[in-house]
Write a structure and sequence with these properties.
With 250 residues, the protein is of the alpha+beta class. The protein has a domain at 126-249: OB fold (Dihydrolipoamide Acetyltransferase, E2P), CATH 2.40.50.100. The chain has seven helices and eleven strands. The strands form two sheets. Strands 3-2-1-4-10-11 form a six-stranded antiparallel beta sheet. A five-stranded antiparallel beta sheet has the order 5-9-6-7-8, with no helix packed on it. The chain is globular.
């Protein structure tokens, strides 16, 4: 390596960038190798890994299709419009990822005007529900027009045009599940975790019912092992027939 190359800041910046990318990976590997319980059996780990891999892949494809041509045009264009577009493109790089995520939720989240207009409150399929991190996806069977049996537990849900005996998947967002001392469905709290301003509870509907996750404010207090009641609003549930992709909103 020549003296002029050593004096240039580019090799040093490149080496610093390499360390920035490699050191966390090496530290993570060392921590996993030296831990007696690496935590691979933690509930929700695989679904979180799936969401991360899927979203990273989708983002890479979108950037490759749209970002590369846009970068080529901006590199060859001059003027005020190109400057404005360049600033807008670089703006997300200056924002922390958390702020960008919060802004996206406020703009196109499932409970915003845009989200409701495009039906984001109800996932289009079970795969989409799992992709966005909804773990309340369970199998069931239609008993009648207003009853779906899930794990030996009968839920009052409108099955639409799905006839009795039809195998279905049903889904509800954790924030739509309501907990109280006297709810429609008796359950037992098996776990609770504080997630910022909310608490996520894991409840078991009796002994034969499905396990659900529910999010509530921190004022809701149910210790693990206590009994509670669960409310499942029918209009917050989405049903899918397992042999066809069309969703039936309960």
């Amino acid at each position: 390596m020549s003296l002029s190359t050593l004096r240039s800041p580019l090799p040093w910046l490149g080496a610093l960038l390499g360390l920035y990318l490699v050191v966390p990976i090496v530290a993570f590997g060392a921590r996993i190798a030296g831990s007696a319980n690496p935590g691979f059996s933690t509930p929700g780990l695989l679904s979180a890994l799936y969401v991360s891999v899927a979203t990273a892949t989708i983002s890479t494809v979108i950037v490759a299709i749209l970002g590369i041509p846009l970068a080529y045009l901006l590199a060859r264009s001059h003027g005020r419009l190109a400057t404005v577009v360049g600033c807008l493109v670089q703006l997300p790089l200056a924002l922390p990822p958390l702020i960008s995520g919060v802004l996206l939720i406020y703009v196109i989240g499932p409970y915003t005007t845009i989200g409701r207009a495009f039906g984001m409150t109800h996932p289009a399929s079970a795969e989409v529900a799992r992709l966005v991190g909804i773990q309340n996806v369970h199998p069931g069977r239609v008993v009648s027009a207003g009853v779906v049996r899930a794990g030996g537990f009968d839920l009052a849900l409108d099955a639409g045009d799905l006839g009795p005996g039809r195998e279905v998947l049903w889904c509800i967002r954790p924030e739509e599940v309501r907990l109280s001392e006297a709810g429609t469905y008796p359950a037992t709290v098996t776990d609770a975790a504080v997630l910022g301003a909310v608490v996520e509870f894991v409840v078991q509907l009796d002994e034969t019912g499905p396990e659900l996750r529910a999010q509530a404010s921190r004022s809701t207090i149910f210790a693990p092992g206590t009994r509670c009641g669960v409310e499942i609003p029918p209009d917050a549930v989405t049903l899918w027939a397992q042999d066809r992709p069309a969703a039936v909103r309960a």
